[in-house]
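On to our target:
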Amino acid sequence: MTTVVSFVIVIGILILIHELGHFFVARWTGVGVERFSIGFGPVLLRWRGKETEYALSAIPMGGYVKMMGEENPLEGGAQPDYDPAKAFALKPLWVRFLIVFAGPGMNLVLAAVIFAVVLATLGRPVLPAAVGRVSEGTPAAAAGLRVGDVITAIDGRPISYWEDVDRAVAKSQARPLTLRVRRGGAEETVTVTPRVHAAVDPIFRETREVWDIGAAPRVIPQITSVAPGSPAEKAALKPGDAIVEIAGQPINTNDDLLDAIRSRPGRPLTLTAERDGRRLPVTVTPEPVKERSPNGEEITVGKIQAGLVGKTDLFERYGPVDAIGLGAARTWDMTVLTVKGLWKLVSRQIDSSNIGGPIQIATEAGRQAKEGMASLALFTAIISVNLAVLNLLPVPMLDGGHLFFFVIEAVLKRPLSLQKREAAQRVGFVLLMLLMVYALYNDLVRLDAFKIFR
């Protein structure tokens, strides 16, 4: 029930905001609106305004705003039964463009607002500048940094969080950094020279060069998600579990856990999970997976197919102005990330099995709801950005397809013929249906729903 209700709330909000974008800009620019509908299928609720019919339907998977004169009312020679001055097709090109863009544009605005509200009320999670790991043979080890050290200043500038350390290291370009560290009850100074090395991006598995010193912050790894049928699920791990020990040894960083999992493909690994204040022994057997190392060599590593995050109880809050600015920046970053992901899917750099549909969205919405309203709100913002980007693709039937037609009209100084637009709409409809079926198929595969046919 939590999953269903969360899904309806998330999708309902996204669709409502999207269609309100079209609706309000249409009204603002003098375009008449005949019908404003949320959902498809049987109509649950209907009422009539002065000019517009409003409807709420049973299936919350879309909506539409039907405007007066969407096609040129003067082409057929028949007299329209409404004021031609309110016809969408007779408005200037920039007005039509603005009305269509307003839908996905409002989804981006919604994401920015959600990010800003969360940052202003709850803040963002941050990690203290405490060292949780020092790798052998690294600049940090050579400089004498130790696990438990707290970095208080870099080059004389006080710092508060580990991201301040990362930022200083990234800007150093091999320039030696003077760190002031608190060790026990004393303050000490160490000098460390960052190095550059190849690192694998955790999202797209791209290899890139980064600067680091070979030290990681102290965090407790926490499970955020568990894939159905995965080694993590078979070991009875659950979202929210904090992994505090490996084979009886304390964990100080996410890397400690990841390295232990990756180094034991097909071999049992004993963990200690903290759940609801109790410590539970867990034995998990990582699944052997082939992948490419940064130098291109094929290697076998272990994976348990669980999401992981560094648990922290430290949050940084922002004032209203800073929250708005950072909310807009987060929305832009998420937009760039979504566009990059779509390109990698199209160019086959990412397997198409990553495409998800309504079942995956519903499952994730239910999981986020169980973690709290803040998690569900942030999930809504992320899906809102995805919806905006997808709607801006130049595919007929989507807002981006209409915008593409407007670009062609601007170039040709005339709109495409109705016949060509209708043909393109039919092709776009078929493509969208195929994509939806494939996404639904992927959702069912993740749930192992086809086992009944085996």
